[in-house]
Write a structure and sequence with these properties.
By secondary structure, the chain is an alpha+beta fold. It folds into two domains: about 5-125, no CATH class; about 190-295, no CATH class. The chain is about 25% helix and about 25% strand. The protein is built from eleven helices and 16 strands. The protein has helices at about 20-25, 105-110, 115-125, 150, 155-165, 180-190, 195-200, 210-215, 230, 245-255, 280-285; strands spanning about 10-15, 25-30, 35-40, 45-50, 55-60, 60-65, 70-75, 80-85, 90-95, 110-115, 130, 130-135, 135, 145, 285-290, 295. Strand 12 and strand 13 form a beta hairpin. Helix 6 runs antiparallel to helix 8. It is globular, with a radius of gyration of 22 Å. The relative contact order is 0.10. The mean pLDDT is about 90.
Length: about 300
């Protein structure tokens, strides 16, 4: 079973099972007059921030992310998102994505961003399985990472049936959804086109919202299964990073053979006059964020022209 090993399957971890924290027993970072230290020992991790006079030290309860990581802290009854995060590209700490413009003027503010109830439900709801019960956070029922039941309601019953010998049990099937519906389904966590537009989010930060970017593509067709999220990505396996892997996906629409008279005109797409391989390296450019700490593939599929502004 490969899904638990994917980045989604490891979207949340506890300090005792966190390979990043275990591999880096002490991480330090300083900015704006504050010093941050994350120390891990015997399966426990501590997040400390100091202004040189006062110090706040809290246990790390949960880690969001399988590569880059942001931590959740608790002070009293209030949950906080850490103001610094770990980035594999630099093997170290820097300001958490989205908080770059924050200039904390107190030690409490430098510790992290308070999570509203809505924030917490959204974060845990997308990074775990079973965290939301009756519209409330339920840490007792929560399982780390995105598991079967997160996407396939009824999957737990399917597994129980299999263990009891009911081999004809059929799990919930998402493959029959249209590309538009799949985009909305994945967009519950990766952000839908509607949400991004309503929220008036613009600029390069939107590259993180793949369903929105994909639906901006000229070639997107909400009823064509060749252009949906799962046409290229198998959520049960780790994302493939090799550009050539996606050539067959692109050529399913853009192959010269699609121009035959026998192919319905609605299914025909122009073939690339430049190349027939490594399509995504040109038509889905990489976008660097935070000075290169994070790199995202832009899912707005297009002919990219040198020097053109980032399309919203």
């Amino acid at each position: 079973m490969t899904q638990p090993l994917t980045e989604m399957g490891r979207a949340l971890s506890l300090p005792g099972s966190n390979p990043v924290l275990q591999a880096h027993p002490k991480l330090t970072f300083a900015k704006g007059g504050y010093t941050y230290t994350i120390e891990t020992n015997a399966g426990h991790s501590t997040y400390t921030v100091s202004d040189g006079t006062r110090t706040i030290s809290l246990p790390i309860l949960w880690s969001f992310g399988a590569g880059a990581q942001t931590w959740v802290l608790q002070r009293g009854d209030q949950l906080y998102e850490s103001l610094v995060s770990y980035y594999p590209a630099i093997h170290g700490l820097d300001i958490t994505t989205g908080d770059e413009r924050m200039t904390p003027n107190t030690l409490d503010a430098a510790m992290g961003r308070p999570m509203t109830q809505q924030n917490a439900k959204a974060c845990f709801g997308c990074h775990t399985t079973g965290a939301i019960s009756q519209d409330k956070l339920d840490f007792q029922s929560m399982k780390p990472g995105v598991g079967c039941e997160h996407c396939h309601l009824g999957a737990n019953q399917h597994m129980a049936d299999i263990f009891e010998g009911q081999e004809d049990s059929i799990p919930p099937d998402l493959s029959k959804l249209t590309s538009g519906h799949i985009s909305d389904f994945c967009g519950q966590c990766h952000r839908t086109w509607e949400l991004v537009v309503r929220s008036r989010w613009q600029g390069e930060a939107t590259v993180r919202f793949q369903p929105y970017r994909l639906e901006n593509s000229k070639c997107f067709n909400a009823t064509d299964s060749r252009i949906g999220c799962i046409a290229c990505h198998n959520p049960h396996q780790q994302v493939v990073r090799k550009a050539s892997f996606y050539d067959a996906k692109c050529l399913a629409c853009h192959s010269p053979s699609m121009h035959r008279a026998s192919v319905p005109s609605a299914n025909r797409s122009k073939s690339c006059p430049v190349a027939k391989s490594n399509c995504v390296s040109c038509h889905m450019p990489k976008v660097n964020m935070l000075g290169g700490h994070l790199t995202f593939t832009d899912h707005d599929i297009r002919i990219v022209k040198p020097g053109e502004p980032y399309p919203n």
